[in-house]
Every structure is written in structure tokens, then in C-alpha cells.
Amino acid sequence: MKQFVQPLSRRQNQSLQELIMATNCLAEFARACLDAANAEYDFLIEYFRLQRISGNFDLLVSPEDRNKMRSGLASRLRHK
User: Fold this and answer.
1) How many domains are contained in the chain?
2) CA–CA gap between residue 67 and residue 52 (Å, rounded)
3) Which of 29, 33, 57, 78 is the most exposed place for a label (fewest CB within 10 A)?
4) C-alpha R_g of the chain
5) Residues 20, 28: contact at Cβ < 8 Å?
6) Is residue 30 part of a domain?
7) Residue 17 lies in a domain
8) Distance separating alpha carbons of residues 22 and 35, to the nearest angstrom
9) Residue 37 has what pLDDT?
10) Cα gap 18→38, rounded to integer Å
11) Contact 61, 51 (CB under 8 A)
12) Which residues constitute the domain of residue 14?
């Protein structure tokens, strides 16, 4: 019974610390991946909100008209 309640040896303690650090790194990486995905969705939401406000949905027009809409929007944004 005594062997189960003894403090961890130095090597076991170091291994446990390494495991905790690796787990923390993995959690931070997963959080960063989620943040990146959320940023992409946020961009798409704002992009479609802009299209709704302007009344021009570029998904419904030809590529030529889409380019005209984008260049017109860009020029209006530059002049403000």
C-alpha cells in the first residue's frame, strides 16, 4: 500500500509535467483551429450581409457582371 501513496519520483514527475504541457499545447492548437474556422465563417456572414445591404448578390450574376460589381464596390470604398 505504501508504494501507491509515495510521492512520484523525479522522472515520473517530469513525465507528468511533459504530459500536461503536451496536453496544453494540443488544447491551444485546437483552439487556434476553431478560431481560424470561426474567422472564415464570420467573413462569409459579413460578405453576405454586405451583399444583402447593397442589393447585389454576386452568386446570381454572370462572372462579367460580378467583376463589374466588385470593381464598383472597391472604387466606392476607396473614395470614402
Assistant:
1) 1
2) 17
3) 78
4) 27
5) no
6) yes
7) yes
8) 20
9) 93
10) 30
11) no
12) 9-78
User: Is residue 51 situated within a structural domain?
Assistant: yes
Answer for the pair 73, 54: CB distance below 8 angstroms, yes or no: yes
Q: What is the pLDDT of residue 72?
A: 84
Give per-residue pLDDT as tens, 55-77: 877 778 888 988 888 888 888 88
18 contact partners, CB below 8 Å, separation of at least 6: none
Dump pLDDT digits (tens) for 1-58. 455 545 656 667 778 888 889 999 999 999 999 999 999 999 999 988 988 888 877 7
pLDDT at res. 1: 45
Classify residue 65: in a domain, yes or no: yes
HSE at residue 6, side-chain half, CA atoms within 13 A, is 7
